[in-house]
Write a structure and sequence with these properties.
The chain has about 130 residues and is mainly alpha-helical. Helix 1 runs antiparallel to helix 3 and helix 3 packs antiparallel against helix 4. It is elongated and about 65 Å long. It starts with 5 loop residues before the first helix and ends with a helix. This is CWH43-like N-terminal domain-containing protein. It comes from Ataeniobius toweri. It is a multi-pass membrane protein. Its main location: membrane.
């Protein structure tokens, strides 16, 4: 058993944990509203217990989307780090899979297409992470 098999398993574990940490940071800094608040636009009449500051209600601008949670500092820095590391891991996994298929079988168009698609996805993830 190779140590390289840990890499595909660690990619979703690392990225999912990182996204939840970014959400927790955004919630702690009151940049987004909590997920369990389903009274957006109707919560403006009363102040929510977790919000202290100039914004007293949850509007549609404060919905905790992944890209919204990673927009403002300090969580934007961690969001960029998660996305860049995840993109590097995707590139490495697709390259290792490409080499594995060449070693076991002959090179084919589908193998080259999967390598290209993986690297395009990694480039897109880098763009999302670094240009919010």
């Amino acid at each position: 058993m190779s140590v390289w098999m840990i890499l595909p398993v660690s990619l979703p574990v690392f990225t999912i944990t990182g996204i939840w940490v970014v959400y927790a940071m955004a919630l702690y800094n009151q940049h987004v509203c909590p997920v369990h608040n389903w009274l957006y636009n109707e919560s403006c009449e009363e102040q929510l217990p977790s919000q202290i500051g100039p914004e007293l209600c949850c509007t549609l601008d404060n919905i905790p989307l992944i890209s919204k949670c990673g927009t403002l500092p300090p969580e934007s820095c961690f969001f960029s780090l998660i996305c860049s590391t995840g993109a590097f891991m995707v590139m490495l996994i697709t390259l290792l899979r490409y080499a594995h298929v060449i070693e076991k079988h002959q090179n084919c168009v589908l193998n080259m297409a999967s390598l290209s698609t993986g690297w395009i996805c990694a480039a897109g993830l880098t763009m999302v992470g670094n240009f919010q």
